[in-house]
From TrEMBL:
Predominant localisation class: membrane
Keyword Isomerase applies: no
Entry protein name: PKD/REJ-like domain-containing protein
Alphabetical GO biological process terms: calcium ion transport
PANTHER family reported for this sequence: PLAT DOMAIN-CONTAINING PROTEIN, POLYCYSTIN-1
Molecular function (Gene Ontology), one example: monoatomic cation channel activity
UniProtKB keywords: Membrane, Repeat, Transmembrane, Transmembrane helix
Localization terms from the record: Membrane
Pfam families recorded: REJ
Nucleotide-binding is among the record's keywords: no
Native source species: Mytilus galloprovincialis
Lineage of producing organism: Eukaryota, Metazoa, Spiralia, Lophotrochozoa, Mollusca
InterPro entries: PKD/REJ-like
Top-rank taxon: Eukaryota
Length: 729
């Protein structure tokens, strides 16, 4: 049986079977059958509030993590079931079993046949075939459509002339469920803004989030909607009242080197080459990087021999007077014990299970960074004839002060997160040092050293606390109410800017097309247009912005078409290919037309166009024909502009531009290789903590961990490599 009500004592249930549960607690115990390990699914996805996100465009294979410890004698059997969870208006949840079962060791999920929504996947694992011994577990899946591919013919940037301009958002848009060329099911919305720019690069620098243009921004969470600052204030109250804080201040202000009697040093890590078949249990693994994968390795932590601690003064004094002393009166804890207790309380609050401070810190930092980028983008409107944006205007002075303050705060929050993560990476060894000083009754554990290099030591406890306290104090000194008020004022200004600059001669249609009437005066004034397209498909939205700059001379219609790896996310490990097309050109014009290409850097945050040196060296095609083919190898999370120019006989000229944004690599995780605890001739590979932003523009630690990822494990020797595993966790 897998679920029993009984008393758990340690790891043994009332039926003397291995179990998982609170010690000495009567309740529902998970009894682990013989021959099986306990973990079935990734712990992240066991709650209905934290499902794995699976796109309908993906094919997912889910395997149970439980291992068969008796594989030579016992066959393990599986029974998989999938349930659709439905919630009515009263909050009542019902489950409908899908006609999808499996008896294999994995469950193949093809979500394009399923309706978007929340699902529960349950597996029953056991033996023999009638499941006399079994255990079961459920994980949750959220199936949703990825954003539809949304595109306006002509590309990200283009030249247009006087007259009627037809905008086609239908031909290049599609849902990933239906695929390219099939826009069925899409619902289109258009918007248009105009500014006097006289320069397409100035126009390209403008970034007004579609959420402002389509009035969706009101529902977006902001940093001032969170409780993080309240948490900081509560911590500050406890810090100011603590003996630990006073002690840290005193030590940090002390001059000179702390006494050598407390110089307990601990080697942080070491690394040696691993040779197959020659492992002595102490080696690490050398890292290597190729074009496709970065390999991560585990390093062994080593502590110094216990004898090294006997030079401590207290041990010498204890040796002289080893007789215990018995006190009859009540003994209050001394300062050192109070400091130790307050330290343990702080570490538990920051690092251990149930603590949400680090999570709230990262949420707050992400939201604050979003606000920073939005406010930073207002600088790009400088030079445009807008009254508030004249040089040295109060508007820009206040904005500059706000940006500097927020940048400093973000740096502090990044430092706080780094400080906590650095401590967390050493937490095991630091706890051992703390236990040791408690065991030998050594005063002032804060003066312990940790070895960083052969010749550099750090007072790790002291530095950790000092940095953490200082950042908390700086955060609390910020006038957050003022920053909130300024941001809200500038946000309202941005809404006003959008409303004041909507196009007056723009005619959107519901079929995916729109018409823009460009007046002669618009060309004379150098008006540029931001044209927004929003496509909706069964709960998912996609957006595209075209930057159209007016010029004299009746520019021909020039379009760029993606051939390979140039859509919303560009892979850094693949070639990139586009082709230039002039649908309005005659055959004779095309025959004598001259094409040329340019490639520029376009930073995502500043949107300031810059030259990309020697980009021609990356080309696989000539730079003077209709095709553009570039080698793999662009940097991750960067923006670039691919610019095509066509010159027709007679001098008519036009440009079209395509912005590509390279993808992030998965981040934040680790891979560990170690000997199996169950089989001497096997190795165990553990991947954990990996995150990916999926189809989103930016990383967001709050949700990136939910993305479905595939893992590849290769065995590499000096001559070749062989695939050991490919699939999801």
């Amino acid at each position: 049986m897998a679920n029993e009500t009984g008393l758990c004592t340690g790891n043994i249930s009332y039926q003397r079977e291995p179990c998982e549960g609170m010690a000495n607690e009567t309740g529902l115990c998970t009894v682990i059958p013989p021959c099986l390990t306990s973990e079935v699914f990734d712990q992240n996805y066991l709650s209905v509030d934290s499902p794995m996100v699976v796109y309908t465009s993906a094919k997912v294979i889910i395997e149970a993590l439980a291992q068969n410890l008796c594989f030579t004698n016992t066959s393990i059997f599986y029974s998989w079931e999938l349930f659709k969870r439905m919630t009515d208006n009263n909050g009542t949840v019902t489950e409908i079993k899908e006609n999808r079962t499996s008896s294999s060791f994995y469950f193949s999920l093809q979500p394009h046949d399923l309706k978007p929504g929340l699902y529960r996947l349950h597996v029953k694992i056991g033996f023999p075939e009638d499941f006399t011994h079994w255990m079961g577990e459920s994980m949750y899946l959220k199936i949703e459509h990825p954003p539809p591919n949304t595109f306006i013919k002509g590309g990200t940037g283009r030249y247009i002339g006087e007259g009627s301009v037809t905008l086609d958002g239908k031909s290049g848009s599609y849902s990933l469920k239906n695929g390219p060329g099939d826009p069925s099911g899409l619902v289109f919305d258009w918007a248009c803004l105009n500014f006097v720019t006289n320069d397409i690069y100035k126009l390209l620098s403008f970034k007004i989030d579609p959420l402002f243009v389509f009035l969706e921004q009101q529902n977006v969470e902001k940093w001032y909607d969170t409780d993080f600052l309240q948490e900081v204030n509560e911590k500050l109250i406890r810090i100011n009242a603590s003996t630990l804080y006073t002690h840290v201040q005193s030590l940090d202000n002390a001059t000179g080197k702390l006494t050598d009697d407390y110089n307990v040093t601990i080697r942080e890590r070491y690394k040696t080459s691993y040779v197959a078949g020659q492992d002595d249990g102490s080696s690490g693994y050398d890292s290597y990087v190729n074009n496709n994968y970065t390999n991560y390795f585990y390093y062994v932590i080593e502590t110094r021999p216990f004898q090294d601690f006997f030079h401590i003064r207290y041990m010498k004094e204890l040796y002289k007077d080893a007789q215990p002393k018995i006190f009859k009166e009540i003994v209050l804890p001394d300062d050192n014990e109070v400091v130790r207790n307050e330290y343990n309380e702080l570490v538990n609050d920051l690092l251990y299970e149930g603590s949400s401070f680090v999570e709230h810190l990262m949420d707050f930092l992400d939201l604050l960074s979003d606000s920073y980028l939005t406010m930073l983008s207002l600088y790009n409107f400088e030079g445009v004839p807008i009254e508030d944006l004249t040089t040295n205007s109060p508007f820009l002075i206040v904005l500059d002060d706000w940006l500097r303050t927020i940048k400093d705060i973000c740096d502090d929050l990044e430092l706080m997160n780094s400080t906590i993560n650095t401590y967390a990476s050493h937490v095991d060894i630091m706890e051992k040092g703390l236990q040791l000083t408690d065991y030998i009754k050594m005063d002032d554990f804060l003066q312990l050293y940790i070895t960083k290099t052969e010749k550099k030591f750090e007072h790790f406890y002291l530095y950790f606390l000092r940095d953490f306290y200082n950042i908390i104090l700086r955060i609390n000194q910020v006038d957050w109410n003022r920053l909130e008020m300024i941001e809200k004022n500038y946000t309202n200004w941005l809404y006003g800017l959008v409303d004041d600059n909507r196009c007056s001669h723009f005619n959107p249609k519901t079929d995916g097309y729109a018409e823009l009437q460009v007046q002669r005066q618009d060309v004379v004034n150098g008006v540029g247009y931001l044209i927004y397209l929003r496509a909706y498909f069964e709960g998912s939205y996609g957006y595209f912005v075209q930057h159209a700059q007016t010029i004299d001379g009746d520019p021909p219609e020039l379009e760029l078409e993606c051939r390979l790896n140039c859509m919303k996310k560009t892979a850094t490990t693949s070639i990139l290919s586009l082709v230039a097309v002039c649908p309005s050109c005659s055959l004779s014009e095309l025959t004598n037309a001259k094409f040329s290409w340019n490639f520029k850097h376009f930073p995502i945050d500043t949107r300031k166009v810059a030259d990309y040196p020697n980009w021609q060296d990356m080309m696989l095609s000539d730079t003077n024909n209709r095709r553009f083919v570039m080698k793999a190898g662009l940097a991750q999370n960067q923006g670039y502009i691919i610019e095509a120019t066509i010159t027709l006989p007679g001098g008519r000229l036009s440009k079209s531009m395509w912005i590509v944004t390279t993808d992030y690599l998965p981040y934040g995780g680790s891979c560990r290789v170690e000997r199996s605890t169950h089989f001497a001739d096997q190795w165990q590979v553990t991947a954990s903590g990996w995150k990916d932003e999926g189809f989103r523009d930016r990383r967001d630690k709050r949700i990136d961990w939910k993305e479905h990822l595939n893992y590849r494990i290769d065995q590499v020797n000096s001559e070749d490599s062989s695939l050991l595993y490919y699939g999801c966790k």
